[in-house]
Specification:
Length: 588
């Protein structure tokens, strides 16, 4: 009897020991959280089981899971096993809630977790959930727009640098732009940055890596509060998890994140009215001004060139040069405009010029009166004026102007006096030497035989050209190309006619560019995205510089709907369009 009791006791002890070795429990990432936070619940067991049943999660919404992970390792000959079912929960309201019991079958036995209580409070200022990959990515990735000046003057250059800060705790890949700022109230110029370069820096006092993913120079065209639209990027973020591979290395979870730089607001100051010159044309910066003739002594009917040049730093492309006024007796032609301007992080720098061709008609002395140029100096915040000296042109040889005296008082008109030299009508012959026409017979003459045989010879030609015409009419694709090419030239000529009328000019310019693309790339207007145009031009082996210039022209047409533009800028865009179309034609 005692022996049976001993065996029964041992059997029960072994059974209890085996049962005690099984662990199945619920673990929470936190027991108190805000309604705008997330909760992670892990159901862990140390032996594999079947028929896992989750609790109801009353008061919460399941936003992730169940995620299953298994850990199996041998340490000093002893096996360690763990299996986890993970859930991510979002509370639906404030209050005290209970996570119910989960069940699982292990070795034929049913095991249950203990209920756990959770308190949900009002929203916290900064939600934290270190186990959620999406949250971890958000907390370790920041796109920032750094503006050089928040209170600039009208037409003063400011820069926007977009920096993407990345914590060393995560890794990024597949960075791409999904929304570019329009800068509708600014003249803008993107600065090419080339390959992205990783640099070290700080974000809110913590060490971060960052890359500069965009640089833009802006010239505000309106006063008051202006918004700089955000840059938006799509990024694949690799977030480390608690799991490891068979070699012990960390496993990563990839999250696709959309990050935006946020809207920045600047307050643009108007230029002061006090001291503003009457001839001020909008130049803002630091400039030098001069007028230089290539010669001051010549003969009548010879030509000279007078160049008006403005150089320095400022909004060189956004104002018009002063006009040159010349006395009577000097024939003046339309100026040739030239720009040598480069844009960097400090703004525009270089020079712009108008070159006038002047041709004297008579000998004499012609003084070209001084010309003034005024601008707003940002360093002193005052208006400044530069006046060129008087230029005297000496014409040594040529016809006498008679009663015309060239002086500086007659510079307001360009009327020329017609001087009679006695030979104006020498092209009229008074003695025509007319002779009577001999009577000739048309019959059997050369003209007779030509008139007789020409219709017969023309029949094969009519048949040949008729066949060619039918082939041309049946070529639907070719006709579409020819029509688009013809429309491109038509609208480009329309754009030239509308120089000075910003709206009509850029509408005609955009139509010309679109029809040109139809002709050369065989695409429709609805398919004309910038990326597709770049890809097709590259496939046609058009060089990158020409492709970039073409895309820039399309962008100029878009921006012109919102940004004011000068006649000079329109002329520059027209010249660029002619040059780029010609360049693409040659390369195609």
């Amino acid at each position: 009897m005692n022996i049976k009791l001993i065996f029964l006791t041992l059997f029960l002890a072994v059974t209890q020991l085996s049962i005690a070795q099984v662990k199945f429990e619920a673990k929470l990432s936190k027991k108190k959280l805000g309604i705008n936070e997330r909760l992670r619940v892990d159901f862990e067991m140390n032996k594999d089981g079947d028929n896992f049943t989750q609790p109801s999660f009353k008061g919460f919404t399941v936003v992730g899971g169940p995620n299953q992970s298994i850990s199996n390792s041998w340490i000093n000959g002893k096996r360690s096993y763990a299996k986890t079912f993970s859930y991510f929960l979002s509370p639906t309201k404030r209050g005290n809630f209970t996570i119910g019991q989960a069940t699982i079958e292990i070795d034929g036995q049913t095991y249950k977790t203990l209920p756990v209580k959770v308190q949900v409070t009002a929203a916290v200022q900064k939600p934290k959930d270190g186990n959620n990959a999406d949250y971890v990515a958000s907390e370790n990735l920041h796109l920032v727009a750094e503006v050089s000046k928040s209170n600039p003057y009208l037409n003063e250059a400011i820069t926007v640098v977009y920096k993407l800060y990345v914590s060393p705790r995560v890794q990024i890949s597949n960075l791409r732009e999904i929304d570019n700022p329009k800068y509708s109230d600014f003249w803008s110029q993107a600065i090419k940055i080339g390959q992205l370069k990783v640099e070290r820096g700080e974000y809110k006092g913590e060490p971060y890596n960052f890359v500069v993913c965009g640089k833009t120079v802006l010239y505000p065209q309106k006063t008051g509060k202006l918004e700089i639209e955000p840059l938006t990027l799509s990024i694949a973020v690799d977030v480390p998890t608690n799991r490891r591979d068979i070699f012990g290395g960390k496993l990563y979870s990839t999250v696709n994140k959309t990050v935006a730089a946020g809207t920045r607001t600047i307050n643009v100051k108007p230029l002061p009215i006090e001291g503003k010159p009457d001839d001020f044309s909008g130049a803002v910066g630091s400039f030098d001004f001069r007028i230089t003739p290539n010669r001051t002594e010549l003969d009548a009917t010879e030509s000279l060139e007078a160049k008006i040049l403005v150089s320095g730093n400022g909004n060189l492309k956004l104002f018009d040069l002063p006009k040159l006024s010349v006395p009577n007796g000097l024939e003046q032609y339309e100026p040739e405009h030239n720009e040598r301007v480069r844009t960097n992080m400090t703004g525009m720098s270089g020079n712009i010029s108008d070159s006038y061709t002047l041709v004297p008609q008579f000998k004499g002395t012609y003084p070209i009166p001084p010309v003034s140029f005024s601008y707003f100096d940002l360093k002193t915040e005052t208006y400044k004026r530069i006046t060129s000296p008087e230029i005297v042109i000496n014409v040594k040889n040529g016809p006498d102007s008679g009663s015309i005296v060239a002086n500086s008082e007659n510079t307001g008109t360009n009327k020329k006096l017609v001087t009679q030299t006695g030979s104006q009508f020498r092209f009229l012959k008074l003695n025509a030497n007319l002779e009577p026409m001999e009577k000739k017979h048309f019959f059997k003459s050369t003209g007779y035989w030509i008139a007789l045989t020409a219709p017969l010879l023309a029949i094969p030609l009519f048949l040949f050209f008729g066949k060619k015409r039918e082939e041309r009419l049946s070529d639907v694709s070719g006709n579409r190309v020819r029509k688009a090419d013809k429309l491109a030239r038509k609208y480009l000529s329309e754009a030239k006619k509308n120089l000075g009328n910003q709206k009509e000019f850029y509408i005609a310019m955009e139509r010309a560019l679109h029809n040109y693309l139809k002709a050369k790339l065989h695409i429709q207007t609805s398919d004309m995205s910038k990326d597709r145009i770049k890809r097709l031009l590259k496939e046609k082996e058009v060089d990158d510089t020409t492709s970039i210039e073409f895309i820039a022209l399309l962008e100029s047409c878009e921006f012109a709907r919102y940004t004011p533009s000068s006649t000079t800028a329109m002329q520059q865009d027209y010249d660029k369009a002619s040059r780029v179309i010609s360049a693409i034609d040659k390369q195609l």
